[in-house]
Amino acid sequence: MKLKTLAAALMITAGIPLAAQATDLEVTHWWTSGGEAAAVAEFAKAFNAGGDKWVDGAIAGSGGVARPIIISRIIGGDPMGATQLNHGRQAEELVEAGLMLDLTEIAEAEGWRDIVNPVRLLDGCTVDGKIYCVPVNIHSPQWLWLSHAAYEKAGVAVPSNWDEFVAAAPKLREAGIVPLAMGQQSWQTQLAFDTMMVAVGGTDLFMSILADADAEAAASAKATEVFEAYAAARELSDGSNVQDWNQATNMVITGKAGGQIMGDWAQGEFQVANQVAGVDYTCLPGLGVNEVIATGGDAFYFPKNDDPEITAAQKRMASQMISKEVQVAFNLKKGSLPIRGDVDLSAANDCMKKGLKILASGNILPDGVNVQSADTQGQIQDLMVEFWNDTDITAADAQERYVAIIEDAD
Question: Is the entire prediction scored with pTM above 0.90?
Fold first, then answer.
């Protein structure tokens, strides 16, 4: 079935009116790497095939760069038609100010609560019982990506867990390979810290700190082990002189680095480079120590406007994004897991299948953006990037500052 015919069938099935005329909708997002661009193009194709026009408003840089721009435009009265944000607390003030479109009617008509898995992703879009965003994927940060070429050059076996990764690092150095690729954006260093907390400290420690803001847990001996492991890991990244996460991923792809701690969105970069999971690279959820994934991800919000045609187009886009066909097409390119459990993922690669298996087992955690405020997240990110780049800061110093942040977390 041609894409345009398919999109029309989807909207008729969902009870959503087809576009009476093409409506332009500006969509802001921060998906600009090769893999991300290939994925977001699937959304654009589906929207355009339905008779509307996707006007791409990509913002170069990370979410930390894009979010203030997005929020400033919405507050300043220059809203886009749709925008990427992370579901959770990032948009709650915009929702409370009445600036976001209520999607409850369409969500109930299409049974989103019955198809979104885990349902907490939809809860992250819900404020006072009303739904304000459409979750589009499940992204987990707890992965270690390993280059087969790098380990072959170093003459050592590809590690199967974090301890083996650390043990192999000297051989990589001897071969002129950076053991651990790491970009210089603060969210990357926080991601690595949280991932190591789950692997080294365990899920109970992670949840006590993340969900309960338990300062005593943050000051515990188990947490000290995490900070000491993190301090040791930063030495492995010496020589990783890149800024963006996808540049660090490229070091793994090209064999210049042994591995990278990064979310499952890294898969998109390996796919664009025509690398095959299990052949050219290995992925270890939970660093191969604790196979668990956090169910964070991305969602799209639709700022309110006074034009009924734009509002209708916004609802059509929301419906398309959560449809079976678009969910499969988008997530296979993105490397993330679909938010629907009723789709055909026979084309998934080995890494995605690992994630799906963990998701089915229920060994999942919430993501930090779902439970911590943007202010708390920002403070932790600032601390972690400073700790990672300043070797004069000891593990004990960093832990003391971290405990203070958790004590005041909101």
Answer: no
